[in-house]
Amino acid sequence: MAHSIYMNDSALKAGETARVTVFIDNTYNPVLRCTGVHLRLDGLDFSQAPGTVEYVTSATLAGGTNYYFDLTPTPNTQNAGGTIRMSIPAAGDRPASNLIKTYTADTQRPTLASTYRLSPDCDLSAGDTATITFSFSEPVTGLIIDDLTIPTGKGTLSDLRTTDGGTNWTIDLRAPATLPANTPEDVQITVNMDGITDAAGNAGTGSATLATYSLGNKPPSIVSVVGPSSIVLEDTDVTITFTFSEAVTGFTLANINLDNSSASPYITFSPKAPVSADGGRTWTITYHASPHVAGDSTNTVSIRNLDGVRDLAGNAAVPNSSASTDNYEVDAVDPHPTSATFDKARLTAGETATVTVTFNESVSDFTEAAIQIANGSVSDLTPVAGSDNRIWTATFTPTADLARTSSEISIELDGLRDRAGNVNSGIQPFYDSTIAIDTKVFAVNDATVNGRQLVLRYSDETALDPDQAHNAPNDAFVVLVDGVRNDVAGVAVDAAAKTITLTLVNAVRGGQRVSVAYNDPSTGNDLQAVQEAGTGTTSGHDAASFAARSVTNLSPDRIDDDTSTPDSDHDSVPNVQEDQAPGLLRPDGSAGPDGDGNGDDVQDSQQAAVASTRDLTLVAGSQDGKLIPDSNARISEMAFNEPPANQPKGMETPIGLTQFKVDLTEGHSTESFSLYVDQALGVNGFWVKDSAGTWVNLASEPYGGKVASEGGRTRLDFQIEDGGQYDADGQADGNITALGAAAKMPLSIVGQAPQVESHGFWY
Questions:
Q1: Residue 65: how many CB atoms within 10 A of its CB?
Q2: Among candidate residues 70, 68, 79, the one with its CA nearest the CA of residue 13
Q3: Which residue in 548, 538, 542 sits closest to 529, CA to CA?
Q4: Where in this chain does the record put each Bacterial Ig-like domain (predicted)?
């Protein structure tokens, strides 16, 4: 006989064990070894045979030996089959051989896989029918109606059937024809699992509950209350649906709690009696929401009581006050603006106003065209950050060249939409939100000067404000005579003539070039500027600033000395100008007195070696800005010139050129100077031309000078030699004449030795 593997059962079921016989002929003598707790033959492989394998015994036959093993497949497994292998090696004339034995196994018993499902519902009254659908874990056979058990008198089963060959089954259930009133009870249907088998022959075990249903004349109850699933808007119906366990009568509004429903208080739109379209099992009510409710998401409708509600058999309904809709949102208020305002009371030429519109809620589809304002245009409509689109701003630009009119705000509501979907229409005016508009250009028509009187003539259909307390300060005007500033000592308004007369510190002579400029000293409209006369209690608006414009010079060629402008220290700068010099800040941060530009506690108008204007202070015979004791240096002249037309590349001269003449202390050939200017100018040196025409910074280390900060001002320290290359007259004659600029140059060249100049420019 040849080697072989034999099984007495190669199709195993639950609870079965197969005897495996391995026959080995006398040409091979395998070794029976102990592997763990099991005995195994060399070459015998049960690794692909799931389950339990036990060695039983062996028997010697005439041609070889039988080895017996018991194989029990893995329980509760649908596909528990496998393969047994035996490998016999070659030896001598015996070739190698491989034995294979396959088998199948299904050890899983059929079970009830689904819970009950009754149709139409699981509550049965007398005579009701229902269909029960159930399923098993796999197709089964042998199931008959007798395997299903129902308690006596609790119903009748019929028409057991499968719809797919044994997995899914259906059976009909009919309740008894009569039942006691109000005696509901739960009834169970069981199935005998022993009576069924699967395709492999595995039988079920025990019994299982197939279905549970409620049987009896059960009183009706409320099953659900369902409200809107979307936001309720203005002019839309709210429908509430009530579903009972069975058809009922006697259901009225009195049974319904509408306290939290936002129902309209108006008769036309208030809730009407509930109606049923299916014989009484389902009821609905309909109403409109109150028009005063906005964005309320906590609305509910519930059952107040079930008094008077009965089923068709007369059973009283079971109270259930917890039956309620889910919260639903009502937003029945149209979006509308609550305010619309300007940020200004009046507008003049070149000005704009910010319009702010505030709504009762978040809105969309709001456009610039919806903001209606006469006499101008609206632009740049933007929602305010963080306002959730409730607050919007826009820019209103008035029409040019309008004379004294006003406008109010109206909001076009057509198309305006809130987040819920409510829309509005019409126009909403805001009569209290008005703005005065006067964009007629309030400007100078003509300017003339005669001696110390410079007259500005304004053109406007209204008069100037005659109140001198409402006038502009003197320093709001800049008058240049041949490029040198001539300070204004007084400003007078002639309202009727619409003129302003400036009194100059120094008289103008015929033939001199004169210009005037005006800078409104504050923003907006106030009382400290040239302005129109007001109307009633409303003040006028400020005249516009204007850049330097030429003045017609009507002055005679010769003007007698004017003793009304004293110059106490004879430095050519009148006292009234020197008294305007800003003082230095004190160590405690307080301001020093005006007229003391170098902070030595002596008025500059009383010191011959100190000359000041509002723009700068010059100190001759200086050591760090203070007079050197016993220095007799005197400033005899100080004037200002316009910047040169071809000044060096990169040079900025914010106060033009400064020209001065100084008489030296006897025996001195070199004089030291300090020049104070406003820090805000950014000046970083005092620049002059040498005899070769090259601009150099005398306030730099290579030239013995420096730049310092003192009392909130910039101080430029420098030296000039009498008759040296920076003395303009070039003569050692006991006085120094200089022309230079407190200027700003790029840092790359500040303080450095000059380079060779080409045409007066730096490179």
A1: 18
A2: 79
A3: 542
A4: 106-214, 220-322, 339-428
Say which amino acid occupies 536: G
Beta strands in 326-450 (DSSP E): 328-331, 337-342, 346-348, 353-359, 363-364, 371-373, 376-383, 391-398, 405-412, 417-418, 427-438, 443-450
The rounded radius of gyration (Å) of the Cα atoms in the chain is 56
Q: What is the pLDDT of residue 762?
A: 37
Name the H helices within 569-617. Answer: 575-578
Contacts of 223 (CB under 8 A, 6+ apart): 243, 244, 245, 323
Give the C-alpha separation, 485 to 567, whole Å. Answer: 17
How far is the C-alpha of 65 from the C-alpha of 72, rounded, in Å?
23
The closest of 621, 671, 613 to 638, measured between CA atoms, is: 613
- 752 residue type, one letter: Q
Domains and CATH numbers, the chain: 4-106 (2.60.40.10), 118-215 (2.60.40.1220), 222-331 (2.60.40), 337-438 (2.60.40.10), 454-553 (2.60.40), 575-743 (no CATH)
pLDDT tens readout for residues 20-66:
999 998 888 888 887 655 778 888 898 888 988 898 899 999 889 99
User: Strand 11-13 vs strand 97-106: parallel, antiparallel, or unpaired?
Assistant: parallel
Task: Give residue-wise pLDDT tens across range 65-109.
Answer: 999 999 999 898 888 789 999 999 998 888 899 999 999 998 889
What pLDDT was estimated at residue 751? 43
Residues 553-586: tens digit of each pLDDT: 988 876 554 545 688 888 888 888 899 999 999 9
Are 325 and 241 spatial neighbours (Cβ–Cβ below 8 Å)? Answer: no
Q: Kindly tell me the burial class for residue 685, based on how many C-beta atoms sit within 10 Å of its own C-beta (0-12, 13-18, 19 or more).
A: buried
643 CA to centre of own chain: 51
Among 281, 83, 104, 89, smallest CA distance to 200 is for 104
What one-letter code names the amino acid at 547?
A: A
Query: Which of 391, 409, 500, 490 is closest to 446 using CA atoms?
Result: 500
Q: What is the mean pLDDT of residues 252-276?
A: 87
* Band of pLDDT at residue 215, cut at 50, 70 and 90: confident
> Quick check: 338 and 387 in contact, CB under 8 A?
no
Pairing relationship of beta strands 477-481 and 371-373 according to DSSP bridges: unpaired
Query: CA–CA separation, 379 vs 274, rounded Å?
Result: 54
What is the number of residues in the chain?
763
In the chain, what is the greatest distance between 2 CA atoms, to the nearest angstrom? 164
User: Would you put residue 225 in left (φ > 0), alpha (ψ -120 to 50) or beta?
Assistant: beta
CA 116 to chain centre: 55
Q: Are strands 97-106 and 82-88 parallel, antiparallel or unpaired?
A: antiparallel
Distance CA(401)–CA(348), nearest Å, equals 9
Q: Which of 630, 654, 633 is nearest to 642 (CA)?
A: 654
Using CA atoms, how far apart are residues 712 and 617, in angstroms rounded to an integer? 13
105 alpha-carbon distance from chain centroid:
68
Instruction: Please choose, from the candidates 404, 409, 433, the residue with its C-alpha nearest in 3D space to the C-alpha of residue 345.
Output: 433
- With b meaning 16 or more CB within 10 Å and e meaning fewer, what string describes 489-518? bebebeeeebbbebebbbbbeeebebbbeb
Task: Confirm if 598 and 615 have CB atoms less than 8 A apart.
Answer: no
- Dihedral sign from CA coordinates of 248, 252, 254, 255: positive
Amino acid at 444: V
DSSP symbols for 192-251: EGGG-EETT-PBP-SEEEEEEEEESBPPP-EEEEE--SSPEETT-EEEEEEEESS-EE--
Q: CA-CA distance, 568 to 565, in Å (whole number)?
A: 10
DSSP helix/strand/coil, 578: helix
- pTM for the model stands at 0.39
3-class DSSP state of 474: helix
State the amino acid at position 334 in one-letter form. D
Which of 240, 331, 236, 248 shows the shortest CA–CA distance to 288? 236
